[in-house]
């Protein structure tokens, strides 16, 4: 008879871990941190804490976000046609244990090291962000199954924007931070609309299953409009880019409110951070080049 140690499934290969971590979505963590560095007025920093955060917000943090989510959503994902590729892994039952071990091994030591390297305020904010993602996916809270709390917990995506300021001792960029929080809530609702059939079949209650496709489109649109309004004190052009891209796709879903339409629009949802970020980045770099940017 083989022992438990002999039958234990080994850790997942790096290629599989990368798939689970959804590299196409790393812009939501890495890009947010880099934007926070720009907003601090110290684009060319070699601060050890910022560099450590940059490394952590790649594979480890995204594995925490999406690995735990995929573990808890195996039933829904099995019914979702968009899973099994770049939009998210479709896990097999034997992969559960190895994925959980890999997630813990990559995150727990890194978080402990960062608590020693970062100032207390930055450490606290990072741990809050990580805790919200864990609470979103795992019981006992399992916020994904609690309508409206599911989306509100996604403000965790915005919190890395403030980490460079707290690490470097710069002012927190409140307007962009609040705008990104609003955007994150709206994007969560919009992205959930395509999963309404699978979530309902699995008995998972979300903001999208509660509001339906039409209500979800209107809800997401309201958050995107708020996000654009919050960006106005910082950059009219960036606010306009957000309103045209995110508001536009929400309006298209509102005009044709079906999960199938939401699925067709999802690739646009994926690239909206790149589009809006590029508009903001060009302006920031131009100001830095002219020596006119000193942070907010």
Set down the secondary structure blueprint:
Layout: H1 4-7, H2 14-21, H3 30-39, H4 48-56, H5 59-72, H6 74-79, H7 96-117, H8 120-137, H9 149-152, H10 163-168, H11 174-192, H12 196-202, H13 207-231, H14 236-255, H15 259-289
Helix pairs in contact: 2-5, 3-15, 4-7, 5-7, 5-8, 11-13, 12-13, 13-14, 14-15
Could you give a quick summary of the protein structure above?
This protein is mainly α and 296 residues long. It has helices at 4-7, 14-21, 30-39, 48-56, 59-72, 74-79, 96-117, 120-137, 149-152, 163-168, 174-192, 196-202, 207-231, 236-255, 259-289.
Question: Which short descriptors sum up this protein?
Answer:
69% helix; mainly alpha
Structural commentary:
With 296 residues, the chain is mostly helical. Helix content is 69%, strand content 0%. The chain contains 15 helices and no strands. The longest helix is centred in the last third of the chain and has 31 residues, at 259-289. Residues 1-7 have low confidence and may be disordered.
């Amino acid at each position: 008879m083989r022992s438990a140690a002999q039958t234990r499934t080994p850790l997942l290969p790096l290629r599989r871990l990368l798939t689970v971590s959804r590299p196409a979505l790393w812009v939501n963590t890495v890009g947010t941190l880099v934007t926070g560095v720009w907003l601090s007025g110290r684009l060319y920093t070699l601060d050890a804490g910022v560099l450590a955060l940059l490394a952590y917000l790649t594979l480890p943090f995204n594995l925490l976000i999406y690995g735990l989510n995929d573990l808890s959503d195996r039933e829904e994902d099995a019914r979702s046609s968009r899973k099994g590729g770049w939009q998210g892994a479709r896990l097999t039952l034997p992969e559960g244990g190895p994925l959980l071990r890999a997630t813990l091994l990559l995150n727990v030591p890194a978080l402990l090291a960062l608590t020693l390297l970062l100032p207390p305020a930055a450490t606290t904010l990072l741990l809050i962000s990580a805790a919200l993602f864990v609470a979103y996916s795992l019981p006992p809270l399992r916020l994904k199954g609690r309508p409206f709390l599911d989306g509100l917990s996604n403000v965790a995506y915005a919190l890395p924007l403030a980490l460079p300021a707290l690490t470097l001792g710069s002012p927190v960029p409140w307007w962009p931070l609040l705008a990104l929080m609003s955007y994150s809530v709206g994007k969560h609702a919009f992205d959930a609309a395509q999963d309404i059939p699978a979530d309902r079949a699995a008995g998972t209650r979300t903001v999208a299953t509660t509001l339906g496709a039409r209500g979800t489109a209107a809800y997401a649109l309201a958050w995107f409009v708020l996000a654009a309004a919050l960006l106005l004190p910082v950059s009219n052009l960036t606010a306009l880019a957000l309103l045209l891209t995110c508001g536009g796709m929400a309006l298209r879903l509102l005009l044709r409110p079906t999960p199938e339409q939401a699925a067709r629009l999802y690739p646009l949802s994926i690239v909206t951070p790149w589009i809006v970020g590029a508009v903001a980045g060009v302006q920031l770099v131009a100001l830095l080049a002219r020596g006119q940017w000193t942070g907010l």
